[in-house]
Amino acid sequence: MGENLVVKTILHLDMDAFYASVEQLDRAELQGRPVIVGGHGMRGVVCACSYEARTFGVHSAMPIARALRLCPHATVLPVRMARYQEISGQVFEIFERYTDLIEPISVDEAFLDVTDSKRLFGCGWDIATKIRRDVRDELGLAISVGIAPNKFLAKLASEQAKPDGIFQVPEAMDDFLLPLPLKRLWGVGPVMLQELEALGLRTVGDLRTMDRSFLEGRLGKAGAMLFRLARGEDTRQVTPERELKSIGHEDTFDKDLWQSESMHVVLLDLAERVATRLRRHGVMGTTLTLKVKYADFSSVTRSRTVVDGIANAGDMFVLAKELLDKTEAGRKPVRLLGISLNNLQEAGSGQGLLFDGQRQRQLNDLDRAMDRLRERYGEKGICRATLVGHRQRGLSED
Ligand SMILES: [Mg+2]
Predict the structure, then answer these.
(1) Which of 53, 231, 257, 297 is placed for a possible disulfide with 334 were both Cys, Cβ 3.0 to 4.6 Å?
(2) How far apart, in Å, do the first and last CA atoms of the chain sit?
(3) How confident is the model at residue 376 (pLDDT cuts 50, 70, 90)?
(4) Is 109 noted as a catalytic residue in this protein?
(5) Model-level pTM?
(6) Per the domain annotation, does 375 fall within a domain?
(7) Which residue among 144, 169, 194 closes a domain?
(8) Neighbours of 237 (CB within 10 A)
(9) Residue 184 belongs to domain with CATH number
(10) Ligand 1: distance of its center to the CA of 68 in Å?
(11) pLDDT for position 22
């Protein structure tokens, strides 16, 4: 019982019309217009559709032929999963700024337990607002957020929040919960819904009037679960399933790079972004990998292992520069650079012995100072002098 006394703050975050929104983002001419994403021409089904298409009655899983009868002027596009996954990675990186307790549900949906983050970032509503702002400002996309003391209610709340909103389950929870139709409940599919309707039940309020033994007798284990859900009870924890194995960043350039100076500027930027995330997770790594993709799309990786560990941007930058010299970068034009750190472990005391102690401390202090400034002024507000030109010229994608 004791551990349940702390009221948790759980967020359920769900990108709005994700695939269709990414297509509208990448093709400005489609903004504000009905977009259907789905495969295989007229015989396929709708995987996703923009809100503009939904107003015509189009919804996912509908045959595309039918969708086009409802909304003949819609633009139908193929699914570009690699692109959605790329954006998804950026969305989850934003989540990571606010908590480590992230349970991914799909490419565009996750539960976050922010109970312990409130000390740093304000109440659940404040955190939801910050995440929505980051996603809007940095990616140009809308995400809706539900806030509640548990996963079940948070998921219901995010549906309520759509499109492009926040909904917090009120303390007088029943006002929100009891009028909801039963199909909104977690685990209630078409078959279960029929059984419940056969009992004369339509809303969560109706379900609430049934006693536990009756529901268990009729529906078994599912009956016991529904008894709890009808009372807004859910003890499932937010469980981060992916163990952190590596941290990396990469940039693709609008124009191929020829100059090693430009590449060094990019490497410093990448090193700093990786270092920021290392510190947030309290980890260091032992193997640094540099990835170079040339203009002809062929790519190479070069790695170096430092048994004492690599933890700060300075070390990573020096190593990445050395590794770059072992590639054909410069002799061949480069379209992408990436660095990643593997073999992660908890950051200990004797980290990063590439430099002597004093230089090491200076670098660590510099890294930490820049983290603080970034937190105050945002990612783009502060960067080392050598990075200013790079950002202003828009060399990299971000
Ligand atoms: Mg979604």
Answers:
(1) 257
(2) 47
(3) low
(4) yes
(5) 0.61
(6) yes
(7) 169
(8) 14
(9) 1.10.150.20
(10) 22
(11) 97
